[in-house]
Request: fold
Amino acid sequence: VVMEACGTSTYWGNLCRKYGHVPVIVPAQIVHAHNTGNKDDANDARCIWQIGFMPEVKHVRLRSTDNQDMMSIMLLLDSIIETKTQLGNRIKSFLSERGVLCNKGAEAAMSTLKKFCEDAIAEEKDKNSQRSAVLSVVSSSFCGLMKAIISSEQTITDFIISWAASNEKCRLLMTIPFIGPITAAAIVIYMEDPSYFRNGRAFAAYCRMVPYHIGTGGKVEILGIHNKGNRWIKRLLYEISQGMYHRVMMMLKKGKDAA
Reply:
């Protein structure tokens, strides 16, 4: 059963496999590139049928339900961290517009916001203005949202850490320098089955951690790392590589100093 990769292709692929069929999921961009007419169901079905017979097309790997659930947990954690950063920047912007600066971190932003609002409310108490009510709502809303986000982040982080501690592959990965439980869990979840890859370079290419190239007439130009791929796994791998790089540079510097 050949189908185009989409939001429900994993569900339908697992359902086909449950009934004894062999699901084949083809990338959506390849289907779109082969469509020579208008986009409709008939043209899409024809393109999917044609691409299903092309041996050079790499199919999308069908993930299991358990792996899909863990992938959702990791993506949820990434979304929560992004939301916390956005809310922290919004609090800092609110304070900076009033000439107040705060240190880095969500806790520092909340404490600075509370102190500013309490001081401003105390000053406006005898003036019977509406500013006290506005600042009270702003303080309680900002701090309430930030506390809820921090609590959700901590709950998910604790779950991932406990899951990584019970997973043999994660424990092996955590023996590598600069790889903690979150990074190890992300690699294991994203990779799922190591036998799918020939070597480490194949997994790096799967993560889009390799430079892309353009060229014509025999002249090929190697460019930087493409922005395609899963951003959170790329960010984690980049942080690992940066840590290893700085560690090697420090060792080389110590060696030169000793010489």
